[in-house]
Design goal:
single chain; 230 residues; alpha/beta; 6-stranded parallel beta sheet; 6 helices; 13% strand; disordered N terminus
Length: 230
């Protein structure tokens, strides 16, 4: 992908261990200008620690940045974006989980996620262009609520169909559409705010070492009788 050479692509993984077969890993091998947020050695379930690690990674990069986030990495990016510390050109946000509803057995409980700062899910419009790629049979989030996230974040919603959680356990692997959607984000350029600002006008902020205040929670996400939509 020689066309993706100007911005640095920052890969924001989920909470799972590194997997050489994951589409994010395979995408990173195809790009010339890419950086992956490193896994945490401790406090792995802490949203604040995850956001701080993303912030540290972003401040080591000069020039334009595009995020490619998957699973909990999407929520890390969304939480970071509530109090951005540098401009972001855009983001590809793939299959965000719904941490506000109980997850399947074997995943952290809602109470654990609450204690670690993940909830409520941010409701504010993101200050950069974004694409939310959603699965219609994701075991970690029903399509209707992910569509609600995309609407609140001001993101373009892409229906991927029945791709599970878009991870090796769901049969992915290489995901060629990631390259196309990433290029769409880059080609679209920076978002202009209603005031006429661009992401180059981020207000200076102190970088954070402590929990950030939660976003203002206004709209409600759609309800789901089941996490998946057949």
């Amino acid at each position: 992908m020689n066309s993706i050479a100007s911005p640095t692509v920052v890969i924001v993984p989920g909470l799972g261990d590194h997997d050489a077969e994951h589409w994010q890993t395979q995408l990173s091998r195809k790009l010339d200008n890419v950086c992956t947020v490193p896994p945490l050695a401790r406090d792995k379930l802490s949203r604040w620690a995850q956001v701080d690690e993303l912030d540290t990674t972003l401040h080591e990069i000069s020039g334009p940045v595009v995020l490619v986030a998957h699973s909990a990495g999407v929520l890390v990016a969304a939480h970071w974006a509530q109090h951005p510390t540098r401009p972001i050109l855009g983001a590809l946000l793939a299959t965000p989980p719904d941490f506000e509803l109980p997850l399947p057995q074997g995943y952290p409980s809602t109470e654990e996620l609450n204690r670690n700062g993940w909830n409520p899910i941010p409701r504010r419009r993101l200050p950069f262009r974004s694409v939310v790629a959603a699965s219609t049979n994701d075991p970690l989030a029903c399509y209707r609520r992910v569509a609600g996230m995309a609407e609140m974040w001001g993101s373009r919603l892409v229906d991927l169909g029945r791709v599970g959680h878009l991870n090796p356990a769901s049969g992915f692997g290489y995901w060629p559409l990631a390259e196309e959607l990433l290029q769409d984000v880059i080609d679209a350029g920076p978002r202009t705010s209603p005031r006429g600002d661009t992401p180059g006008h981020v207000e200076p902020r102190h970088r954070f070492d402590h929990p950030l205040p939660d976003a203002i929670e206004t709209p409600a996400l759609g309800s789901c009788s089941d996490r998946t939509r057949k």
